[in-house]
Amino acid sequence: MRKTYYLRPKRLEKLTREEKLDLMFDLVHAFRIVRNPRETALFLQDLLTANEIRNLGFRLRIAKLLLTGKTFKEIQDKIHVSSATVTKVSIWLSQGGEGLGSVIAKLPLRYNMPKNLPPGPIEYHLPQLLAGITQYNLAKRRNKEIKGMDEFLENVEGKRRLDKDLQQHFSEYYKEKEKAKRQKTL
Q1: Got the DSSP string for 22-46?
Q2: pTM of this prediction?
């Protein structure tokens, strides 16, 4: 006999195949519609719980590190996840993973501000200076996106607190309901 450690969602089982396809159609096209990092952040913030966002971020980073050749142990140590999580993502990548791999290949690099441009006449350091200016402008553009991400993280944390409060509220509500039910039977 197979043990189930979670309750199966009854509503999903009642949906027809056509209704399930309709749900997936909307989800896939909703992701396709967002055009920039800010829109994506707002969409994810409204659609997912804080834990779901965190878990998706971990899975994406694990896949990215696996595709760059990092070992399971290196990944576990770097982002503090269990070996089961790394194994799960590794299996997903090996059993298909085309979608995840193609998205990771298209991820933009995050540039840092240049440090300590060399002193001396500009003529001698023109290549380094041009590279530094380019890196500076790229970093400046990415930092504008990151400022939006800071707001996104704050909103996700607020959502995490709200989820916790709601969970506590409903837990108390159902405990009281169960207690009243037991008292009626006595």
Answers
A1: HHHHHHHHHHHH--SHHHHHHHHHH
A2: 0.61
